[in-house]
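Lay summary. Proteins are chains of building blocks that fold into shapes, and those shapes determine what they do. In this project we predict the shape from the chain. Here is one chain we studied, written as its sequence of building blocks.
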Amino acid sequence: MSRIFFIDTAIPADRKKWGKHKMHTVFDGNKVFKVGRLTELDAKEIYIDSLLPQIYEELMELIEKGVRVFLLRNTRLLKRLREENRVKKSDEVDAKLLSMIPRNHFKQLTLRELNLLRLIGEYERYVKWRKTVQQWMRICPDPFKECVRRLRSLAEHHGRKIIREIKNDESYATIYRLACDMIGVKDSVEVAILVARLPLNWKLRRLKGLLGLAPYKDNNRYNHKLREYLSRLAVNLYLNSKRFNKTELLKEVINNNKGLRTLEIKILRVLKKAWQQRRYMLAGGQ
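And here is the predicted shape, written in a compact code that computers can read:
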């Protein structure tokens, strides 16, 4: 047995079907079967179609045991293979099709990367809870003041940890530093999360579509969370422009009275440029 598995991942408790549990669908090269947890597999390598927050801990446990974990870079390859083979979408079909995709279309995941994604998830949770409690405060303010203060403190603490992880990760550190310099900020958790989560290898037009900044044929790929980080960064820059170094990016937007959407697009271009500059450096450029 090769101990190499191709897996169509699933959320352990499917919220769309309350009370039911979805299982991961696994193809080992010969047969298809299901497992409740990825850690049940005696694996050497696993290839997964998607990375869900609910399975971060399972993947981290596997990597700690020496299992190599690979993530499909572009899920559109599965759709293309289904069309070419004239098969309908199903968990079993997708698990088998994963085995047909060349290995260079997968990205190996690391403990540091998964830990960073877990921190981002916890940060998002505290921010969401704080917003909810702030809404309760409008009705009855006094009992929730300390709760809001504590949630704000936890979010800020996780924000600092995210920035520290980004700075210590050679895959992201240069992009983050270049982007902050071009934007004109010292540190920013929004920049850190965008650097970690945005697929900056995409063309700019696709990135705009992902963030809802331009029409794009894959409208279902619009990521509200990433757009929220981009919008929050643009608002902070615009409202606090006197505090920040006025880079060319800020000067052009403020002096010409351009809107926040223009600033969001310019920030996105800065992130893309920072990614391109890092690639140039890795290729031997100065």
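What the prediction tells us: The chain has eleven helices and six strands.
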